[in-house]
Amino acid sequence: MAFLSTLLQTAFRRSIVQAAIKVAIVVGTILNLINQGGRLLDGLPLSWFHVGLNYLVPYCVSSYSAARNEMRRNEEKA
To answer: For residue 58, which of 24, 51, 64, 69 is within the disulfide window of CB 3.0 to 4.6 Å?
Structure first.
């Protein structure tokens, strides 16, 4: 449980959140174009659930990766 607590505290650091948002915007936009581009071109409505997931997943992956790397660096210093 201590691992999860440390991971979440690290992942919610301002610098990590800001970087993860930038990644999510770029990657999420690309994923939305890939996954729903056909719907847009056909004039069909978007699946807003999938739009949200296309931004949420890259955010989570980026913040998790950054937090784990930070935790590993801190472990090596100790």
So the answer is: 24
CA dihedral over 77, 58, 1, 16, signed as positive or negative: positive
Report the b/e string of 51-73 with b at 16+ CB within 10 A: eeebbeebbeebbeebbeebbee
pLDDT surpasses 80 at 44: yes
Domain assignment present for 63: yes
Domain that holds residue 63: 6-77
- With the C-alpha atoms ordered 24, 30, 34, 36, is the resulting torsion angle positive or negative? positive
Give me the phi and psi of 47, to 5 degrees please. Answer: -90, 105
What is the Cα gyration radius of the chain? 16
Q: Whole-prediction pTM value?
A: 0.90
Residue 72 lies in a domain: yes
Reading the block at residue 39, the tokens are: 């719907």
